[in-house]
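Before relying on records like the one below, remember that each one covers exactly one chain. Contacts with other chains, cofactors or solvent are not represented anywhere in the record.
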Amino acid sequence: MEKILENLRKNGFTVTEFATKEAAADYLAESIRGKTVGMGGSMTLGALNVYDRLAAANTVFWHQVTPGDEVSVQADNAQVYITSANAISEEGYILNIDGRGNRVGGTLMKKERVLFVVGENKLSGPFPQALERARNVAAPLNAKRLNKKTPCAVDGACHDCASPDRICRALVVLWGKPMWCGEAEVLLIHEDLGY
């Protein structure tokens, strides 16, 4: 774990550690005020139960609360963007797979802050193992949760399918903090959270 955190820092990411999801939720609520905030689809963020707390002091756009393309666009263009990661490699690379591209797009557009809220279970070995985790753990579990008609939703393994329901249509690997991002921070929670 220390090697991953050291490499994240070398790659330009700030790393903040939390013992519990409640402590991470407190940090988010206290450190973000008076901003437009976009939230990417994430079981981890759902587990933090932070939407209402953020909405009390900010304008928050999260398609899991208010579905629709307009909300996704507003989220992507917010001052602060919060999401999770499907995997973080030993080299300190952050991997995310997406179907529509809105969640990964929000991490690439110009922002004051981008925050990746991740449970310890997302930390992986070298890049090939992190990619394996994203494709064969996170994506199949999300496909199943979303009731998609994909082979991976049935057997839990990526088939690199051509299904119309395929949710893994975009892969973004952040080898480092994007150049025009003010701050890119990884909030590592020492619990297993999300997929």
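Helices lie at 2-10, 21-31, 43-48, 51-55, 69-76, 102-105, 127-145, 151-155.
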